[in-house]
Amino acid sequence: SYLIVLLCITSFPHSGKIYASGGLVLVEEPKPRFSCPVPDVDFVGNDLEFLENVMSWENCGLICTLESKCLVWTWISPSAPEASKRNRCYLKSSTEGLRSRDGYTSGERGCV
User: pLDDT of 14-23, one tens digit each?
Assistant: First the structure.
């Protein structure tokens, strides 16, 4: 799959600085390592942040695509054992810590 990125490169030769803002670039996304989504799996640790009241794994995956540092995400469903964590979306910086957990759904960046 491809990701379209708006980008404009401006170079200031006298200062040696280059700035990016606006434009259009086509970037090929890396091939996924996992199925989309991965049911009953949590990527433990490496949390960038979490959001409350995210109502689906698809929404969690979409949120991950908007955060540049997010590589994987984990969404906790309304049926998960931990009531206080239900409908949370965790954005993560690594695939390390893969563990089986009932009611958790995970995916890589781009899995929506």
Answer: 555 545 555 5
